[in-house]
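#struct-help
A.M.: can someone run this one for me? Single chain, 141 residues.
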Amino acid sequence: MTDNVIHIKKAEQKHEQKTERFCVYRGELNHTGELTQKERIGSAYMKRGTKKFRLKLWLMGETSYFVLPDNKDPRKYTIVIPSEYRFSNGETKTNWHRVGVGEVAGTYLRLNIYLLSEDIFLSMFPDKFHLADNSNQAQAA
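D.P.: on it. Structure tokens below:
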């Protein structure tokens, strides 16, 4: 399931890679593609140069979900969660479990996590306040 993730060389990660934050909402998508009655319920993070989001929902605490694009249909996404097992020899194995699906809906990704009763929406545009914070921190350094 992670074959469609673009990996960045570790050497480049130190100097050029930045993480962007995206807002996650609950609400209603109207016929024009605008999200109404929205309430922010979490954030998603994407490192530049990759295609996967790390999704953090405030009600789910420390749990991280990953939103991966489909290899065949650029409008479809899969939501997965990792589980790690450590063997007695110290080796670690990670299994990925599908826990939802997503699709492009206007300027959002409509996400259906199987255990949630309603869809949630991930903005496809980075959080401008987060970007401003990063540039202010860079200028102060």
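A.M.: thanks! The chain has a mean pLDDT of 83.
D.P.: also worth noting: The longest strand covers residues 92-105.
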